[in-house]
Structure formats: structure tokens, C-alpha cells
Amino acid sequence: MAEGTTPTSSLAENKVRLPLIALIGPPNSGKTTLFNHLTGLRQKVANYPGVTVEKYVGQVQCDRERTVELIDLPGVHGFSARTLDERVTRDVLEGHVEDLPAPDAVVLIVDCTRLESQLMLVEPVLKLEIPTLLVLNMWDELEERGGNLNEMELADLLGVEVVKTNARVGLGVERVKEFLSGVEVSERGLPPPVRVLSNVPRGVPLPMIDAFTARRRRLDKVVDRASFVSPGPARPTDALDAVFLHRIWGPLVFLTVVVVVFQSIFTWAVPLMDGVELLITSSGEWLASRLADGWFRSLLIDGVWAGVGSVVVFLPQILILFLFLGILEDSGYMARAAVIADRVMYRVGLQGRAFLPLLSGYACAIPAILAARTVEDERDRLATIFITPFMTCSARLPVYALLIAAFIPEGRLLGPFLGYRAAVLLGLYGLGIVAAVVTAFLLKRTLLRAQPGSFVMDLPSYRLPSARSIGLRLLDRSKIFLRRAGSIIFAVAIALWVLTQFPRTDAGPPLIEDSALGRMGQVIEPAIEPLGFDWRIGVGLVTSLAAREVIVGTLGTIYGVEDSTDDSITLQETLRRDLTLPAAIGLLVFFAFALQCMSTVAVMRRETGGWKWPILQFSYMLFLAYSGAFIAVRLF
Amino acid sequence: MGLTAPKSISSLPKDEAGSELRLGDIPLSQTVELVRIDLPAERAEPLLERGMLPGCRICPVRSSPAGDPIVSVDGSLLALRRETANCLCVRLLSDVS
User: Residue B77 maps to which CATH number?
Assistant: First the structure.
């Protein structure tokens, strides 16, 4: 590709593309709010190879004729590439991302109530030498708190266009659109040959701290000449912090928030999940009644409908979790929660920022691992990613629910509050936490050994979250989740069904133990015999590598096919007949530890940039799962 | 302010040299100037990017429940760890005059 482009690629280069504008800014400057205002629903979540972090690209209709593309980059404080977010932002701005042209213009948004420190991004951005718009967001708050600024003077001094906005209510957004409509596709071709966005000026081997100080001095002069009056203290934020960061109330509020989030996932989500399940089963039955009995109906209903349906059921739970996380983040409370959690995390060897990914891990490890990108220290981020799959994700719940209902008797352990079943469930959650804590402790003393990092957390002003912004994010989450269910789970469901249907016998499909799937189970049976599992569980363990909850559907299929003569026996009863109580507990322990989720492994590989960590993690968790189950079987 | 400051100096703990104050030693609401960051470059960088540069003014505004400092710099609120705050050398503003 170095010399002489192929005809196809030159064609692609000549193809008319829309002007691409990068939207950047520090965290909490209102970047995504502005993005949502500009793009509305015309946005898509994109993954780019290599860096592969979720990036948001949307189209902006400036006027009847002009449409431009806007890319929402992660919030950054600088371009040192110390964090993954900074690296992504830098690579996109410098045009180092495959399949993405270098942007034709930049919109830099800052929170003008903290103008001096936020403007530190201006100088490096200007080095890109492309049209730049500086958006002074939260102008209303600046004025309310008695601050002021001559924005025309600032524009002159910096040599960029400046717009005042209040993105939350959409004030000034039209002016931003005007700027966007003037951007043309640049013909610069190749990106600059060297890194332009470094924090240290090129050719000058200044110590970093001096480079920063020099830049800051120049900025201070600019801000002074633009007659910036810094705003007074943010009174509501002060008053709220007096409670949320109070020595006694602070931790109490924190615990209440955690309890409410959990309660909502496990209690309030249930009716919604029942609703979705009813929808899936009734639509499946309706469909079955319309189709002639045969292999196609079997594939569609027993394979696809049941397989995909068993995963889609979790959508309400995941959405409720993300609704809460969205509110907590947008209101500014999440930063306070991270501060409160920091001391506990610090003792384990992590930091407060790990709190958000770990909490998300209770819904699903995949978004949680992506959320770990905000952890600034690379070792801390790796450790956080490594322990996230120990958090009991919602995919383990159906497995736990089935086995507990089948083997643990109802009965009260502690008066009316805690029954045996609830206690076992709590114990499994506890098991995950203990494993996570011990693992983090070990990691930070071996592979990821480091001096404790300098934890700095920005505490943004409290703001009322916008329903529109959270709604758009939930929509995104649903799309991503359903896409996953529609691809991986769909494929597994079909593969499973096919494996139960072959080799064919004269009478049609084979007995399950003679089928390809059954034989696969028998091959691994010797390995799992010490745990008290037979080949049926073995098949379930293999198929649940696609997603943990698949084991429920698989066992359903296996026993369903096996007992097709007797419909009245439920899966629970069949399991009780086939599995001893110690083996059932062993299976529960196995699922508490094992990394039975290929999607997580794939995300791990992307986020850690190689196979080393995912392989290590998978083997480690499998080892824990096997030995844990081995011990459990002998203990009970 | 100018009159009350000397009184608070004597009540503040100092290190062995008797001349250097650390941000971690500063009581709430006492604005100080940052003199030096005693941290290796890569660990100082997050501080620098957020405006904590030598010469800037820092004011501890409250403590976290665990006793870590929360400070105001350039109109931003930042939460630090005690360990980090103890690596930041500061001086009282009255020392300058």
C-alpha cells in the first residue's frame, strides 16, 4: 500500500465524503449534550479497529443542502496519551485511525466557569492548523455566579471563532451549526508526519512541568486581556457536597444508592422481564401454530426463538441499570461516589474510579470493561478489567435461579428476612466479591506491582440530568445489546440445534446421547467427573461459553429431547433426578468463578491490546472454578 | 486576612527543615500557593493538566469522609489523596508579601 494505490482504494479516496468535524473537550464540559442536540437521532455507535473504543459519529443537518459528520470523542484533559481515552482522541485528531479521515475542523467545547484550566487544550488543538470553533458552554452559569468575559476579545486573541452556549437547553446551538455548515472537505491528504499534539513543544526538550507552566502563563495573559472575571462559588454544589461528602451522611447516602440500584435490578426489573418473557413465549407459540411440523419449525422455535429469547429477557434489567448509572453520572454524584469508594479501593490496590465499572459489572461485564477506560492509571485499569468478571453479572442469574430452585429447600434461616434460597444467592454474590478482592490484592503485588498512583478526581458541579440525553444513551445500549443477541447468541442457538439433529437415524433425529452434541459431552465427561457432573452438564458447560445463561436452554433442549415422551416432567425435577446436591453446589460455585463468556474475552482482547490478559484471565478463572467446585463437592 | 495569617502559621505543623509546608497540612479555607510538585513526571501530569501548576492558588474546601482533601483550584473542585497532597509543597500567601 505504500506506493501506488490500487484502483479500488483510489476510487474510495475520490468518493465524495461529508466534511468530518471532531468534537472534543474536557470531561463534564457538556460535550455529549451538545452532540446530542446537534445530531438528534441521526447517530450511530461505531467501533474502529485497533483502538476500538466505542465512538459516536452522527450527521448534522446544517441547512437544507449541507450535511456534515460529527464525531464525539472521549473527554480529555490533555493529549499525553496516558489514558486510553487520550490516546484515542489524539489518534483521531491526527488522522491515525484506519478508515477514518483526519478531521476537517475541530469544535472544542469548554466549561467557561473554569475557563483557565479548561483552555489548556486550546494551544495543542491550534497546532493542528485546521478551522477551530471554541464553544464557551455553561455561559448561563458563569453569569449567574457573577462571572464575565469579553468573548469577542478572546476570539481575537486566540484567533479562533468563539460561541457562547448553554447546551443543556440548546441555547447557541444554531451558531455552532452555522460554523459546521462552513466546513469544507480539506484536501490536505496525508496527516502530519509527526505527532503534533504532544504536550511538550517540538524540538524543545523542556522538562514537562515547564512546558505546562509556560503554556499556562501565555493563557493567563490571554484570559486577562479578555477581561475574564471568574465566577463566585457554586452555592448549590457546596450545600449538596456538605451532605454527600459528610463524614456520616456521605457513606450512608452512598450505601443507600448502591442498595437502591441493586434493589431495582433484582426486584423492580422482574415484572418487566416477565412481560418480555411472556411476549417471547406467546409469539413463539403463535409462530409455531402457523408453521407445519418439521425441521424448519423445530429450528426456528426450539433453536432460534428459545435461544435468542433467553437472552433478550435481560434487556429490561440492563436498561434499568444504565438508567441509574446515567442519572448518577450526569448529576455529578458518581464522582462523589468514587471519592467515597476510593479509600476502600485503595486498600485492595485499586482506585475510586474503579467503582463505576465494578458496579456496572453486576449487569454485564462488557460495558463495565469499556467503562474502565476512565481509570487513569494503566495498571489500575488492567487490574479493574481483570476482576470485573467476578462481579455477578445478570447472565449468571438464570443459572443460579434454576439450580437454587431445584436443590435448595425453601425455609427460613433468619426469621422472615432471609430464607435459605436468598442466603445461597447472597453467598454466591459474596463469593464473587471475595474472589475479586483477593485477585486484585494479588495482582497489585505481583504482575501489576506499582507505587500507588496519584488519584485526582474532578468534582463537577451538580446538574439536573437531561431526560433526552439519558434516553438517547439507553437507546444506544438497547441497540448494542440486541445486536449481540442477534449475532452471537443467534449463531450459537442454530449451531446447537444442528448438533442435536445429526447424525440422522432412520426414525429422524437421533437420541440426544447419540447426537453430535451428546458425543461432545461424553468426550469431556472424564474431565468433569471429579466434580460430579455427567456429560449433559458437560454439554451445558461447553455451550455456555457463548453466554452463561445458554446452559439453561441447553439443559432444556437435552432433557426435552431425551424425555420427549413425557412432557410433564419439568427441568427442575429432571435435574434433581440426575444431579446430587453436592454436585449442584459445585456447579453453582463453578459458575460464580468461571469466565463462561466469549464476548467478555473478545472485549478483553480489544481493551488490553492482545491475547495475554484474556488468556491469563480465562485460565485463572477456570482454575478457580474447577478447584472451587472440586472442594465444594467434597465439603457438602 | 493579612493580620490573621501569621497566627495560623505558628499553629501549622512543619517538616524537619521547618520551612516547607505540604498541602496536606493546610487547614480548611486557607488559600495557599503551590511551590513544587514532588512527584515523578507521569504521576504529576494529571495534576498539571487540571491546572495544578507551580504558582497556582489552592484552597482546601472540605475533607472527604475518609479524611482526604478536596481542594478548589481555578474554580474547579478536585479530590486528592492524602498521600498526593503530602507531595505538594505550598506556601502561605502572606509569605509572598
Answer: 2.30.30.90
